[in-house]
């Protein structure tokens, strides 16, 4: 009866699907510096970063990246393996998910059998290691061992090898002389014959004597060795572990060649010969190491560091390091971004939902400029912590301000700190005088190029740094927010073309400041007052019609005339009402936490939420796109920020697990028609997407006709571009031929003609 129960528990039904390759419309901007595992095959090194993988060809120096863009999951990776025989890259995750990337087809398989296994609790599904033999892949997990067929991509048996068939954590296994040896936690080495037909019966597994809690097991010099949690290495002889030597440090990984044992520690790497004499000790660095694993190819040692990425050195010159990881941001956790044409700034600081920056982090910032990454360390930024926002000077793009939600305001010029505004040297106010706890979040430039600053938890909650000055002027906000130091704080700040400012708050809704009269006003409260679903405002955006879009922790609102709050005490924000599929009216994004709102060149709205990214029409009535992990390469549904490059239409979507770029088409309006273009052009038979016409002036009239002058499409641009689905007014696809695009400006003073060729 026991045998039958074990069999039923261990069976896996195949649950898999092929992931989509998104590389035609998306790009990944992942960090490749936090290396968790390194694997080698021939002349190639495979390195797993936190949620992406890259390979490096030692001979050709070629780098290849694999991420959500290629169908790889955005979850946290725990182990990787490359099968030379099947040309497959296998990626295992902490959740139990497995990706199998097929190099021949360029497709990734999502294998979710383990993640769906009800008899295995989530904390036991972690993939720890892979071992390949013939056509089978033996998978070490926190519950035991599973077998996966590389020939038909299906699971075989699963072995629960603990006492009485319990789930026992297996860190690693090897197969030697037709015997499986498993390094276990809570026991010693468990072993059984590979040919035993009843391996699913726990009683068929034996246990060695000697050391317990084994984390590594290897075959070296035709012998089997195991390393315990106590970092002692023992040789397996006659089913007993015999002590060999004690390693001096916490071993994180072992790798072997025919003559060398490579031992990785967090702070060093050592090599031993067959007699366990140490032949190499790499322990002197110009950086602070945080090693996870290392491998040896010929005379080169490739080391995975959890901060610096993949580095390598030579046995002959062990203190000369080269850096291999692809360029990318410092980290994947993008908290805030700011973009201008061909540039992107990223911060990684953060605060909780209660605007609490603790525990404090020190992470630096990243700057992408013309496809090159410049990463500024926290030391370079004079140890400014919890940097939460970037603001670029519109008149000088090399002039940038960084908001620290604990230390103040950092001013950069050409990536160098030129000023650091703190409580001790400026009028910015700490919520606890003398503490230096200075919480700066939202900042924005006005038409005079003065910088306005949201100073949380202080009576002087609004401040201004005048252009070409280092003097900060403070405005008392306590007459509109009662006892500001006792509140959670202020969030974002935006300014309109009237010169007025609008500030998000944690407890008082939207606070307005009329600069001409230096008076405050606010919109807050529920239906009977300001009609906000929640007074906690996380983000604000002014669209091309000067309407204020308000993102709260419980939904979306719009102030169609935000200036009216200064003259009318009864101003109320409005919800966006849409019709669902059944024609029933409902509120758009009701009860959804809104983290960011961005307006593109067509006045459409990008909305970042904790449930993915939404792309809405200008009035919010139509959802054009909704991107989640299920239908796009975004690595997490928790979207922190979105930025739109108005020059290219590219959309940067920043999540807690990385940044992806959607190759959008909505560009900013132009002053002339000199840069009008249509793409793709020609439209070939296998193309099913939209044709984009950009370089337009705002409100330009665009007519598309066939060669005989028959009108097939007409639209007025909201920004700098329109899209055409190659159909005649949305009905039938137009035939092959040349189509004329006739463009007229809103005042009818400028015209432009271009052509599109359609090939069916």
Automatic annotation (TrEMBL):
It comes from Mesonia aestuariivivens. This is T9SS type A sorting domain-containing protein. The keyword Phosphoprotein does not apply. Residues 45-206 form the PorZ N-terminal beta-propeller domain. It comes from the Bacteria. Keywords: Signal. The lineage of its organism: Bacteria, Pseudomonadati, Bacteroidota, Flavobacteriia, Flavobacteriales. It holds the Pfam family Reg_prop.
């Amino acid at each position: 009866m026991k045998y039958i129960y074990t069999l039923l528990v261990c069976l896996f039904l195949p649950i898999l699907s092929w992931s989509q390759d998104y590389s035609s419309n998306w790009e990944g901007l992942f960090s490749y510096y936090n290396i968790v595992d390194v694997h080698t095959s021939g002349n190639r090194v495979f390195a797993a970063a936190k949620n992406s993988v890259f390979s490096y060809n030692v001979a050709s120096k070629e780098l290849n990246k694999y991420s959500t863009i290629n169908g790889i999951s955005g979850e946290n990776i725990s182990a990787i393996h490359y099968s030379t025989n099947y040309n497959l890259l296998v990626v295992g995750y902490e959740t139990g998910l497995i990706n199998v990337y097929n190099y021949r087809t360029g497709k990734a398989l999502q294998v979710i059998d383990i993640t769906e296994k009800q008899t295995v609790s989530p904390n036991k599904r972690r993939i720890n290691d892979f071992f390949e033999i013939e056509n089978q892949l033996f998978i070490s997990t926190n519950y035991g061992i599973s077998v996966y067929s590389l020939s038909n991509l299906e699971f075989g048996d699963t072995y629960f090898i603990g006492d009485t068939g319990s789930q026992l954590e297996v860190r690693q296994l090897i197969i030697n002389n037709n015997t499986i040896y498993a390094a276990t936690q809570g026991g010693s080495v468990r072993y059984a014959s590979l040919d035993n037909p009843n391996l699913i019966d726990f009683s068929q597994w034996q246990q060695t004597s000697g050391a317990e809690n084994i984390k590594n097991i290897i075959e070296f010099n035709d012998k089997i060795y195991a390393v315990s949690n106590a970092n002692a290495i023992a040789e397996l002889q006659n089913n007993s572990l015999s002590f060999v030597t004690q390693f001096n440090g916490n071993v994180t990984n072992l790798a072997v060649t025919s003559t060398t044992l490579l031992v990785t520690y967090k702070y060093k790497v050592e090599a031993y010969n067959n007699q366990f004499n140490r032949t190499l000790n790499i322990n002197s660095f110009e950086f602070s190491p945080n090693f996870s694993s290392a491998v040896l190819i010929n005379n080169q040692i490739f080391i995975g560091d959890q901060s610096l990425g993949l580095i390598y050195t030579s046995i002959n010159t062990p203190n000369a390091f080269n850096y291999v990881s692809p360029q990318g941001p410092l980290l994947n956790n993008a908290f805030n971004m700011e973009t201008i044409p061909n540039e992107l700034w990223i911060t990684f600081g953060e605060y909780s939902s209660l605007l609490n920056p603790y525990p404090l982090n020190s992470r630096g910032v990243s700057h992408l400029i013309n496809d090159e990454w410049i990463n500024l360390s926290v030391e370079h930024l004079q140890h400014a912590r919890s940097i939460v926002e970037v603001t670029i000077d519109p008149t000088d793009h090399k002039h940038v301000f960084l908001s620290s939600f604990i230390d103040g305001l950092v001013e950069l010029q050409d990536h160098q700190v030129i000023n650091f505004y703190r409580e001790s040297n400026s009028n910015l106010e700490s919520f606890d005088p003398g503490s230096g706890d200075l919480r700066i979040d939202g900042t924005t430039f006005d038409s005079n190029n003065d910088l306005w600053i949201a100073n949380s938890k202080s009576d002087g909650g609004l401040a201004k740094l005048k252009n070409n000055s280092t003097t900060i002027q403070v405005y008392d906000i306590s007459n509109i927010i009662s006892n500001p130091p006792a509140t959670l704080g202020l969030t974002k700040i935006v300014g309109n073309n009237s010169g007025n400012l609008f500030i998000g708050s944690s407890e008082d809704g939207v606070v307005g400041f009329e600069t001409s009269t230096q008076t405050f006003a606010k919109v807050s409260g529920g239906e009977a007052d300001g009609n906000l679903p929640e007074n906690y405002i996380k983000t604000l955006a002014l669209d091309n019609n000067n309407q204020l879009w308000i993102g709260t922790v419980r939904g979306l609102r719009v102030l169609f005339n935000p200036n009216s709050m200064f003259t009318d005490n009864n101003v109320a924000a409005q919800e966006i009402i849409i019709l669902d599929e059944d024609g029933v009216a409902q509120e758009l994004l009701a009860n959804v936490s809104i983290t960011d709102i961005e307006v593109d060149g067509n006045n459409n709205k990008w909305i970042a939420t904790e449930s993915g990214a939404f792309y809405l029409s200008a009035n919010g009535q139509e959802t054009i796109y909704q991107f989640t992990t299920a239908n796009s390469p975004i690595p997490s549904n928790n979207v922190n920020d979105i930025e739109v490059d108005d020059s290219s239409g590219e959309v940067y979507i920043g999540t807690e697990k990385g940044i992806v770029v959607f190759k959008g088409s909505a560009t900013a309006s132009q002053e002339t028609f000199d840069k009008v273009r249509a793409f793709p052009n020609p439209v070939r038979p296998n193309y099913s997407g939209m044709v984009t016409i950009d370089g337009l002036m705002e409100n330009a009239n665009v007519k598309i006709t066939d060669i005989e002058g028959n009108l097939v499409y007409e639209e007025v641009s909201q920004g700098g571009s329109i899209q055409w689905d190659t159909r005649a007014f949305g009905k039938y696809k137009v035939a092959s031929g040349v189509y004329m695009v006739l463009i007229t400006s809103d005042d009818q003073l400028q015209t432009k003609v271009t052509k599109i060729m359609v090939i069916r």
